[in-house]
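Researcher: Please generate the 3D structure of the following complex. Treat every line as part of one assembly.
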Amino acid sequence: MKSDQTIESLREAVGAQKPQRTTHRAGLTATDDVRSTYYGQPVIKPAHWRWLVIVYLFLGGIAGATYTIGTVASLFARDRGIERAARYIAAGAFLPCPPLLILDLGRPDRFLHMLRIVKLRSPMSLGSWALFFAGGFATLSAGLQLVADVAGAETLRGFRRMIGIAGVPFSIFLSGYTGILLAATNVPLWWRSFPFLSPTFVGSAYSTSLAAISLFLGFSGEREDTARRLARAESICLGTELAAMTTVLIRLGSIGRPLRSGKLGMIFWPVTYLGGMVIPLALQLPAVRQHRSVSPSRRRAAALLALLGGFSLRTLMIFAGRESARRPDDYFAMTGGTEARGS
Amino acid sequence: MSATTPTARGFLTDTSLCIGCKACEVACKQWNQLPMDDDPEGGPDGFRWEGTSYDNTHALGATTWRHVTFAELPGAGGAGGQTAWMMMSDVCKHCAHAGCLEACPTGAIIRTEFDTVVIQQDICNGCGYCVPSCPYGVVELNTTAQSGDHKAHKCTLCYDRLKDGLEPACAKACPTDSIQFGDLEELRAHAERRVRELRGRGLSAYHYGTSDCGGSATIGALGASFILLDDPARYNLPAHPILPQSRTFRGILSMAVTALALGAATAWSLASRGEP
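Model: Done. Output below.
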């Protein structure tokens, strides 16, 4: 059958008997319906990932983005406390990541097999290596930061800066590759969100990282200039995350139902979309635009909401993906008939 | 049609000949010593009744590598409104460009000298990334309660039998020769002839497994192809599946652009001077 041919036209062409219309029965739709399914059975299989992977997605994004922010701060910021906070948070967020992933494996004793090869088209292969190197850099930079905290802020400053720059390609990859990991599967909700799922995850990684740094530095009045600058950066990242997430929802259309409606939808709108993106932005943006400081209580609320929202985003994306894989109608919409999408 | 190696082997499953006896399912389980399906939603023996006609296996999986589908079409069976039976023995498609192979980060999934796709069980660490990457829902982690080894499993095209010059167990057991095994190019040529013959008899037959239909531009042709008589969805198959890794590089680009832009924005925010 040619790619633009339907079964109906083929039947006509060969003079085959056309099936009579039947009444709808459970699982079997009317015989004239092109989008019939096989008794409503799923076509593809979902990934088995649950909480171990969800927590990894959250912490890995923070580890990667805080490291990048740390290097940016070492090069551009006057307040050395930002880099210090970023280095410690990056290492702290990284440390649970390998155990989480290793425990998720079917055969955890074989975790080193991830480092047998590099497969450039496999996001998981690239991600394993990125985690390996980014983690190494994060640990090293945190150790150097500790040395500087003890022996003086100028200790090994040039070397520390160099290491920070060298680690950035890996930390950038770590902060956002999981969006590609999900989109490079056949799960309709993940596949159709391309190319905006990865920018959403990157935006979330940055906004949660800046929130974590703000919480680490505290909300006392000493660092008002720093607080203002962090709030401004966080607003830009939140805005990007919000725009990307909205674009994902629009692109998904009815395929996005597992995420935006039903049980997951009841958490998505208040916690992820409003709580994690809109409200933190609304709390900080007006003051940022007027070059004023945001009040400490507002900044604390915004930071906590952003972190909770970022965690819920990963959680809901994973669970919505599991549900999406169970829907044959969505998969056939993606791959069937003359409406074939994708390359 | 993509060029194949001289020893390329594959399946052609002609559903116009299938009688739904399930000898293929039994032979596969027997040769590969696969356990019975341990369905957690089923009863003590793992059975799950779902009103799916004579199909009690429901899908391919870690312990089912041949799965016979039964779709009943009332009124489509000829004069008098008899029921037509769409029976098809589903199997791993052994794609020219396989989603599972592209996804596998350990290199466990390889292409053999027979142009088939095989999972090396001594390397697989059960990461499970191949599972959502298969466009046909074939491969699965074996998480059965008693005997599950938590690694990925699928049809090997009886790699062990091929190495000894035997044909796969399912092809040998099939009583009507609905499952044909042999040289890939010969099978494809035979498929074209058979489709013409069936159409001449008034059946809406077509070859599912070319890069036009069943395979795709990104997946290529299928090593295990089918002659189908109805819409692919009727057999739980996608008409135009996609190789999901075809987007990896563009994905990296969109991610890198966003990350660099946000990094630059952060740098600007932390560095800009001259503000009150």
